[in-house]
């Protein structure tokens, strides 16, 4: 039996509420992670961050096939959910078990690629976290499918507390890079145990052959799409680690922390909420176009000023919160923040294709993106991590143009409408930047007081700029936010 399509008002409320609760959980968790990073930056050297970075690059790739995309397939599923959930669990577990074996035997080759022998044992140990994640893949997907974003606060915040606490304690006790590895495993274990307790779903030995094939096929397409996306998003880490070494990779990874916390994670939260919501409308392309433009408008209303703001505060931020040894991370942080703000407008098209069970569109675009991304970032390494960070901006502009063009074809939305959705936030962020830079030239700013001043001036300037550029957008956003808080 097909599900009744919700109204546009219901969709908007679901999207706003889901995004708010998910972002609270995610930001809360990432703030705790940030606090632990402040401590770890004083206990560990940049080289140690870089060595763990080698392992995380590999884990990101393995994670794609760890659950074989069953989460995406399950969220998009409209019928026979119980049979699909059961099939997804066993596919996920089988895929993860195979990957653990593959990782065990290929770990020495990966260590040789990065010229770091310790990577062998680190990767083999980190696969424990991958197996735990596979066991929790179905409860995780079901909590998103049923829009239970509020109850996900405990697993998400708990992950950060456990991961950060274990990492800091072990680093203090002198475990070095292993402190980050065991923290990762402990955080994953807590999250998945909590999800199992919350969702109360349990697998059975019964498998439906037809449903299993459908989950396998859709999940496989999604896994391939995700794999290429991860390859594209980690080309910078791979090139820096291979060509520049562990210390530059450590600086670059730290530069990513704040833009990742504020912008990239907001994008991640948005796609987690958008996928189950857009999947409800997969048979109504015209309404999908309306919701797509709304998402684009309100996402960039947050990410554009966030990117500009992080770029503005980066020098003072590094100086205030980290030791002087981390100064090489300042310029990369500025460029990464701007690049991720641009990238945010390209997240929703990918979610849109998955929601309508067309991840093959992502797979067709992926080779194009991966080709020019690798070429541009490889060329940029000759200028060190600063060059790679600038290269990211170029790559994200090209990605945005390609994504918006394809999305306009799939949902028959004119490119001009997409441009109009992006214009208010981009123009307001530019005006905000001009105001803050003017204040900085007139008033010397230092320390926490300087950071607070820049933040307040920027927020006030952006609010005024939005009201000036598009008062309607500002009023609608305020109304939606008040509705969510009132509920």
What does the model show?
With 487 residues, the protein is mostly helical. It has two domains: 1-6 and 243-487, no CATH class; 44-233, no CATH class. It has helices at 8-43, 46-66, 70-76, 81-113, 119-135, 137-145, 153-172, 177-199, 209-233, 235-244, 246-279, 285-321, 330-343, 347-355, 360-380, 384-410, 415-442, 447-469, 471-486.
What characteristics describe this protein?
mainly alpha, 19 helices, disordered C terminus, 487 residues, disordered N terminus, 84% helix
Low-pLDDT windows of residues: 1-5, 483-487
The total beta strand count reads 0
Q: Kindly name the structural category.
A: mainly alpha
Taken from the alpha-carbon principal axes, the silhouette is: globular
Count of individual helical segments:
19
Mean pLDDT: 77
Oligomer: single chain
Q: How many domain regions?
A: 2
- Evaluate the radius of gyration: 22 Å
Beta fraction of the residues? under 5%
Q: What's the helical proportion of residues?
A: over 70%
């Amino acid at each position: 039996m097909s599900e009744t399509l919700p109204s546009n008002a219901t969709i908007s409320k679901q999207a706003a509420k889901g995004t708010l609760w998910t972002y609270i959980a995610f930001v809360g968790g990432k703030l705790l992670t940030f606090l632990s990073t402040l401590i770890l930056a004083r206990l560990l050297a940049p080289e140690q961050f870089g060595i763990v970075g080698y392992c995380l690059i590999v884990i990101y790739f393995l994670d794609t096939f760890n659950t074989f995309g069953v989460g995406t397939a399950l969220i998009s599923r409209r019928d026979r959910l119980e049979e699909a959930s059961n099939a997804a669990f066993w596919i996920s577990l089988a895929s993860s078990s195979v990957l653990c074996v593959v990782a065990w035997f290929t770990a020495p080759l990966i260590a040789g690629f990065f010229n770091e022998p310790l990577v062998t044992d680190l990767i083999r140990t980190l696969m424990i976290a991958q197996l735990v994640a596979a066991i929790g893949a179905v409860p995780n997907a079901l909590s998103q499918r049923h829009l239970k974003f509020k109850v996900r606060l405990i697993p998400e915040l708990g992950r950060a507390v456990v991961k950060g606490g274990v990492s800091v304690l072990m680093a203090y006790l002198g475990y070095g890079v292993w402190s980050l590895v065991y923290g990762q495993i402990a955080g994953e274990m807590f999250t998945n145990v909590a999800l199992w307790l919350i969702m109360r779903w349990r697998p059975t030995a019964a498998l439906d052959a037809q449903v299993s094939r459908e989950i396998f096929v859709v999940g496989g397409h999604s896994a391939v799409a995700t794999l290429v996306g991860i390859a594209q998003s980690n080309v910078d880490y791979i090139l820096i680690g291979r060509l520049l070494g562990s210390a530059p990779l450590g600086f670059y990874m730290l530069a990513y922390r704040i833009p990742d916390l504020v912008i990239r994670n907001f994008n991640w939260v948005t796609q987690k909420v958008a996928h189950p919501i857009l999947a409800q409308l997969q048979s109504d392309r015209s309404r999908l176009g309306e919701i797509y433009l709304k998402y684009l408008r309100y996402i960039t209303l947050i990410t554009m000023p966030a990117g500009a703001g992080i770029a503005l505060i980066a020098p003072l931020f590094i100086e205030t919160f980290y030791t002087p040894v981390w100064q090489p991370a300042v310029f990369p942080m500025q460029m990464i923040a701007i690049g991720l703000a641009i990238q945010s407008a390209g997240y929703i098209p990918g979610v849109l294709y998955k929601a309508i069970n067309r991840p093959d569109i992502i797979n067709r675009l992926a080779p194009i993106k991966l080709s020019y991304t690798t070429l541009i970032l490889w060329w940029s390494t000759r200028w060190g991590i600063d060059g790679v960070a600038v290269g990211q901006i170029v790559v994200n502009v090209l990605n945005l143009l390609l994504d918006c063009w394809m999305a306009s074809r799939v949902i028959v939305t004119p490119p001009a409408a997409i441009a109009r959705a992006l214009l208010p936030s981009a123009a307001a962020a530019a005006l905000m930047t001009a105001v803050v830079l003017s204040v900085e030239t007139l008033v010397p700013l230092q320390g926490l007081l300087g950071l607070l001043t820049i933040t307040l001036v920027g927020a006030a300037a952006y609010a005024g700029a939005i009201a000036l550029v598009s008062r309607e957008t500002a009023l609608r956003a305020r109304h939606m936010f008040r509705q969510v808080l009132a509920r």
